Amino acid sequence: MKITGTTIRAWRLPLASPMISARVTMTHRELVVVEIETSAGISGTGWCTTAGVGAAAVQALLSGYLLPMLTGADPRMVERIWHRLWMECHAAGPGGITTLALSALDIALWDIKAKAAGEPLYRLLGGGPRGVPVYASAINLHLSQEDLVAQARAQRAAGYRAFKLKVGRPGLHEDLERCLAVRATIGDDGILMLDANQKWQLGEAIQRCRILTEAAPLFIEEPLLSDDVDGHRRLRQSCGVPVAMGEQLCNRFEFWTYVRSDAADYLQPDVWKVGGITEFLKIAALGASTNLPISPHGAVELSVHLAAALPNALHVENIFGLNLFDLGATTKPLPFRDGLLQPPDGPGHGVVFDGPALAGAGIRLGEAIDRMPLQRDPG
Ligand SMILES: [Mg+2]
Q1: Distance, CA 158 to ligand 1 centroid (Å)?
Q2: How far apart, in whole angstroms, are the C-alpha atoms of residue 137 and residue 14?
Q3: What is the distance in A from the centroid of ligand 1 to the CA of 108?
Q4: To which H or E segment does residue 15 belong?
């Protein structure tokens, strides 16, 4: 089997309303989709998303450099292709735009590999047809406490038993009040996770996490800048709240730095950011080798296949408003029931991009996007 052709498209999808975390105000989600055709008549689809910056650069890297290199290669050689292309990109950066681009390409190759085997992706990865626990997640720091509680109540009524909410409001006790209100809503048996989106520095993080222990969180995600490995190690030793890291980490070496530094309790690789499934599996193996659980970040449509196959994967994350169906990029809602998500049973990963949002104009290379001018940025 040989690769005979590739296509790429990218979109900048407006959100229904801005979503605010401790670090960013998100107004758009960007989507880059790669299609790879083969001589066997099998095609694969891969994609990555961004929080609103970088898709045009990913598109340029793929269309100008990486995808043309694939022509004639056997798409089932995912390990060799991944390593060769990562090394091609390495001088430009071993993570970031390069691994976002590699993710879209790698996911398409795994889709072909699973379709060629006639198996759903989770089975190719060694998994079984099990319901995977899924938690409710939202970018909700801008919500009033009343609206935050209403959101948690609706999620619980829909069958969720695990929840993640944003922290990082200005007042020292404001986060605690919001967390306790959600804790009262989800009950003592509900799992509560917190995400500070890299907001704090070490001293403030220690103080705030000690206060937040009252809400009994499973973990605090990204309390400090993700580059501050030693800060996370020191925070873990002193604050009493387990630390989850990975949303901003781009390859296995960055995860290994955290693991060997005793700086994380939960590893959160994002299959769109680490270079796709090939690299995700290596990061999961790091967790397995050190007895650390994997809590896959986002990408629920793919994470469900990975979690169905990995014994150390706890659950998957459904970010309300940002999964592909909510974005309008697909027409099939997630098959969620009683807190569980079932991976699709057809060959491949099962994602088909055919949603109404994609009827709009895509990103045109070189076109400036509308961003807030720096002089208007209060930060
Ligand atoms: Mg996060």
Answers
A1: 22
A2: 19
A3: 25
A4: strand 3-20
**Helix H or strand E segment including 19:** strand 3-20
Catalytic residue among 297, 305, 315, 349: 297
Contacts of 213 (CB under 8 A, 6+ apart): 239, 240, 241
Q: Sketch the domain layout of the chain as residue ranges.
A: 3-118+356-376, 123-341
Candidates 3.40.50.1820, 3.40.50.1240, 3.40.605.10, 3.20.20.120; CATH matching 123-341: 3.20.20.120
Q: Report how far ligand 1's centroid is from the alpha carbon of 227 (Å).
A: 15
Query: What value does the mean pLDDT take over residues 299-311?
Result: 97
Residues by chain with Cβ below 5 Å of ion ligand 1: 195, 221, 247
Q: What is the pLDDT of residue 377?
A: 52
Q: What is the pLDDT of residues 114-173, one digit of tens each?
A: 999 999 999 999 999 889 999 999 999 999 999 999 999 999 999 999 999 999 999 989
Cα 188 to ligand 1 centroid, rounded to whole Å = 23
297 in catalytic set: yes
pTM score above 0.85:
yes
